Amino acid sequence: MLNAYLSSSDKLTLSRTQIHFKYLFIILALCFFIYIVHLVPASPHWKLNNEFKNILIPGIRIAIASGVSFIISEFANSYLMAKMKMSSKGKSLIKRIFVSCSCSFLLDIILFLTLAFYGTMPNEMLLTLIYVAYIKKVID
To answer: Model pTM?
Structure first.
């Protein structure tokens, strides 16, 4: 339904939607397998089990944050591009690309960093990280 709405104004094809769902499936499969590894008991001779879990389990949060921020920011980029195309009657492509990409970059960075790292560092540091990451992404 959403694909049909967007494809009427921005030529969003089903293959792009399929790519997003495949990406989401891969992220969910990764999280599932990390959880399975977490449940399997370690060998009694291995002394680094706590360290292993301290490194592995936060990967689930980062993977989910990556998938959620990617899908939402891609949708926002497509939506903004379609709305701006309709309002400008297909003119000023460079302006549409710049504005929609800048907004989707900001949304992607805010969502990813907040979902992945909120509560693991002070809020001031997280805001600084968001600001620096956005500036770097826009410059590159």
So the answer is: 0.71
Per the CB < 8 A criterion, the answer to whether 60 and 34 are in contact is yes
Instruction: Reduce the DSSP state of residue 48 to 3 states and report it.
Output: coil
Cα 45 to Cα 35, 48, 49, 50, 53, distances in angstroms: 22, 9, 10, 13, 16
Domain boundaries, the chain: 2-139
Token readout for 55 is: 């490194």
Q: Give pLDDT tens digits for 33-76.
A: 888 887 888 888 888 888 888 888 788 888 889 888 988 998 88
Which has the closest alpha carbon to 23: 70, 80, 57?
70
Task: Answer yes or no: are the C-beta atoms of 36 and 45 closer than 8 Å.
Answer: no
